[in-house]
Amino acid sequence: MSITRLQQARQMYALGQLVSKSMDGLRPGYRGDDAYGGSAGTGGGNKGGHGPSDRDRAMGLQGKTGKTDKSLDSGGPGVDRSRGFREVDRSAVGQFSQYGKNVMNQSLDSLRPAFGFTDAARTNLITDWNGDLIFAHTTDQGTVVKWDDAADASAFVDIKTKDIDFGEPAVRKKIYKVYITYRGNATNVQVHYGVNGLAPTLTFNTINSDGSSTGSGSLAKCMPVNADVDDWLKAELKPSASINNINSFRLKLSGDGSNAIAADFEINDISIVYRLKGTR
């Protein structure tokens, strides 16, 4: 099968071969070096293979797919501002960081009782010019305060776990005990549990000074032991009533609203001892 001279020239160019001039002195199918940014010299195209071409740089600025262009950094080499290329807006990084903080603020918003008041109106958490989380509340006719993560004594602690089904929501379980490893003063810490999605209102037996269960009692403040702040104490919490044939289980640790939980109280881990029951 024969091909035309133009088709032959295009094939040669595609294979990297120099296209010979035709009788009229032109090279069919060849647009010249300037069209592809490949010749040496000055002018448009960032030629000679040194750095990205104008097209690549423009594509990078537009956020489209193109060659990696590190010269887009502010003040970096190869940025020709005389041709209208702007510097990259690095504030976008700060904007994404700000968005991440806003997401975190929404989660902190659920810690309303931890602020020490529950009935006062207050604003949402926002980030100030210094990167601190602040909010205003109506106590004392309007007060602006800054959030910090330093430990404070509080009677309004309210921590609930999710409804735990141990990965088998349809299988019945038996709960034997719960271990809470903590240090500090737990005298005013209330511990409740709930089953099958119900509110956690049920209690455990109290513990001895060494953390073992007494096997008796049914108190919300079941860990009346001021443990050393340097050593962890493992509290063995046995339910005051049998927890059998349940599908899910949850815990709640809270203050009583009047007697503050000590600032040195700290939880390391919580473990639940359970067994899956066979299907009938």
Descriptive overview:
By secondary structure, the protein is an alpha+beta fold. The chain folds into three domains: 5-83, no CATH class; 92-146; 158-276, Jelly Rolls (Sandwich). 14% of the residues lie in helices and 20% in strands. The chain has helices at residues 5-14, 33-36, 54-61, 91-108, and strands at residues 126-127, 133-137, 143-146, 158-160, 173-183, 190-195, 233-237, 243-246, 249-254, 266-276. Strands 5, 7, 8 and 10 form a four-stranded antiparallel sheet that branches. Strands 1-2-3 form a three-stranded antiparallel sheet. A three-stranded antiparallel sheet has the order 4-9-6, with no helix packed on it. It is elongated. The termini are far apart. The model is unreliable at 38-45 and 61-111 (pLDDT under 50).
**Rg measurement, Å:** 35 Å
Looking at the structure, the CATH topology of the largest domain is Jelly Rolls
Low-confidence stretches: 38-45, 61-111
What share of the residues does DSSP label as strand, in percent?
A: 15-25%
User: How would the global form be characterised?
Assistant: elongated
| Major β-sheet profile | 4 strands, antiparallel
Terminal-residue CA separation: 78 Å
Instruction: Determine the structural class based on helices, strands and strand pairing.
Output: alpha+beta
String of helices and strands: HHHHEEEEEEEEEE
Question: Which range best describes the helical content: under 10%, 10-25%, 25-40%, 40-55%, 55-70% or over 70%?
Answer: 10-25%
The total tally of domains equals 3
| Overall pLDDT confidence | 74
Number of strands: 10
